[in-house]
Amino acid sequence: MRVHVVSDVHGNSRDLATAGDGADALVCLGDLILFLDYADHSRGIFPDLFGVENADLIVQLRTEGRFAEARELSAQLWEGIDRVAATEAAVRAQYTEMFAAFPTPTYATYGNVDMPPLWPEYANEGTTVLDGETADIGGLRFGFVGGGLRTPMRTPYEIDDETYAAKVAALGPVDVLCSHIPPDVPELCYDTVARRFERGSEALLEAVHAVRPRYHLFGHVHQPLVQRMRVGQTECVNVGHFNATGTPWVLEW
User: Fold this and answer.
1) For the whole model, what pTM was predicted?
2) What is the pLDDT along the chain (253 residues), one digit of tens a residue?
3) What InterPro entries does UniProt report for this protein, alphabetically (predicted)?
């Protein structure tokens, strides 16, 4: 059995269309939307609406941890624009491309930069969306937990710690634990380019110790200090920043 795993697709529909080649199934751990490409500030919904110079500035403010100033700039730019309508229209255009690129079968969960209410309109019969749910893939039990925890970035699908922990607990025993964000392990949460810790989940770490899955697969941290490490009996793997690499991570058994 061979499964390809991707995360942090962020608009890369071209490589997503071939990500399942040679695999029995594709697993996607979220972040299909591209609001702003931190490597190329000309790409994404934000620069399309407000230009590259403003994208440069907001990346600078966020990178320096000046989140209040970044939010103030964003509020000024959105003034007089129907933010909900403009964002939804742009996201729908991206989702049309992303979901059309998914092979059959695909098992997917949400990232923190996703809009879950829209997914049912785009997920076809070959795509199974799971969040706080499990699926049998090739005889192994896969558990999926979508979204991220609340941060100053205020991305679209951030939830409180208690709600997130409840989704983790609902999975029960699993062979492969799949989430968008990592467990709360410093080496797995630190982004070496952004030079900051992304939020990891204590509930996921507790599940790794208690349930002891074979693998815990995740993304979210684009340039991790450590891409792979063993925690107890579990191999914890950041499957990679698919937007940049265009290459899925491979799991075979």
Assistant:
1) 0.94
2) 999 999 999 999 999 999 999 999 999 999 999 999 988 999 999 999 999 999 999 999 988 889 899 999 999 999 999 999 999 999 999 999 999 999 999 999 999 999 999 999 999 999 999 999 999 999 999 999 999 999 988 899 999 999 999 999 999 999 999 999 999 999 999 999 988 999 999 999 999 999 999 999 999 999 999 999 999 999 999 999 999 999 999 999 9
3) Calcineurin-like_PHP (IPR004843), Metallo-depent_PP-like (IPR029052), UPF0046_metallophosphoest (IPR051693)
